[in-house]
Amino acid sequence: MNKKISVNGERLKSLLSPCLIILFAMAFVSILLVAIGANPFAVFKSLIQGAFGTPRGLISTISKSVPICLSAFAVAMAKKVGIFNIGVEGQLVVGALGSAIVGIYVKGLPMIIHLPLALLGGILFGMLYSLIPTWMFIKRGVNLLVVFIMMNNLAKLFSTFVIISLINDPSSMTTASLPIQESAHLPNLITSPGKLNISIFILLAVVLIIYIVFYKTVCGYEMSVCGLNREAANYSGINTGKYLTWALLIGGALAGLAGAIEVQGTYYRLYDGFSPGYGFDGIPIALLSNGNPLFMFVGSILFAALRVGSNTMQIDQGVPSEIVSVIQGTLVTLIACEYFIKYLSGKMIMKKKEA
User: Fold this and answer.
1) Angle between helices 40-52 and 55-80 (to 10 degrees)
2) Coil, strand or helix: which one is 188?
3) How many CB atoms lie within 10 A of CB 278?
4) Range with the poorest average pLDDT among 13-22, 63-72, 78-87, 134-143
5) CA pair distance 251, 88, nearest whole angstrom
6) Where are the extended beta strands (E) located within the chain?
7) 131/208 Cα distance (integer angstroms)
8) Coil, strand or helix: which one is 98?
9) How far apart (Å, rounded) are the C-alpha atoms in residues 20 and 28?
10) Which of 10, 63, 106, 318 has its CA 20 to 30 A from that of 169?
11) Residues 6+ apart with CB under 8 A from 197
């Protein structure tokens, strides 16, 4: 009986901590809004109205949630085994580059072959780009965070170089590649008043697969053990090196898929600086959701709503759209204080039990 109460208490703490973090972040942002003379309630209402209040806003929110959610999964794969993949943004950019190359230069194929081939190009490029820091971490013991941060910058610069020097479209008014072949376009489900393509079904399939792997397989259990205590996992016979390697490589593949979807479903070419930071958006989502795929799916919709609704908020309330970055930064800061938040949650639960 005591064991059951303890388990339920831990579950309640794991659910209460993210809620407290979000509430603290909203409170902090509200104070900033008051300081600049804005009405927090009106600002948040305008934000929600822009993201969900119109069909166009709702469709745009769902569409933008796809790359954000895939990025969150990439972070969650590493978190499951106890490491931190902060290089998702770079892997996403390189994945987009791989998809664009396959989409531009592979010609004469029917859509049923060219479309998945271009997606596979993005997946492989993202995975291969994550192979370098993975090898350095596993074999040489190099600090993973430092390498990933450097690889993020390198990916952006390398993508810019390739676009300008090798695949540039001279007729484009911006720095962009040649358009990809129509056979590599992701088909649209909705075209008016907004655009939503079949990538939402790809995302739902990924959500289901990751949920099954995490919670219904021996592999998922061993990954959890590896993340909780790597030494104990090694002692029990679990090959932690294998799980560390595959978690990072699969994370790179998921990030590459996110980049490929943006090229094949949104822009139909590769623009320099196309990503507003989807890879970084995935970090707080993965951490707040504690690696739960269903919570990450919901969280990605909320983060997409912040991006979509910020334009309406800026127009209606005159508040800079950068307030979204403040919200995200506050969430990351509070997540860093997770142990303190969990301590407060535990105190609240104990008082409730005593009452």
Assistant:
1) 100
2) strand
3) 29
4) 13-22
5) 8
6) 188-190, 196-197
7) 26
8) helix
9) 12
10) 63
11) 63, 186, 187, 188, 189, 261, 265, 266
- Give the whole-angstrom CA distance, residue 28 versus residue 305: 19
What does the DSSP assignment read for 110-139?
-HHHHHHHHHHHHHHHHHHHHHHHHHHHHH
- Write the CB contacts of 299 (distance below 8 Å, at least 6 apart in sequence): 69, 72, 285, 288, 289
Cis omega before residue 193 (within 30°)?
yes
Q: What tokens does 296 get? A: 């990450």
Tokens of 78: 């590493």
How far is C-alpha 325 from the chain's CA centre?
A: 15
- For residue range 92-139, what is the model confidence (pLDDT) as tens digits? 999 999 999 999 999 889 999 999 999 999 999 999 999 989 998 888
Paired tokens of 50? 């822009």
SS3 165: helix
Question: What is the spatial distance between Cα 346 and Cα 37, in angstroms, rounded to a whole number?
Answer: 36
The full length of the chain comes to: 355
CA 127 vs. chain centroid, Å, equals: 16
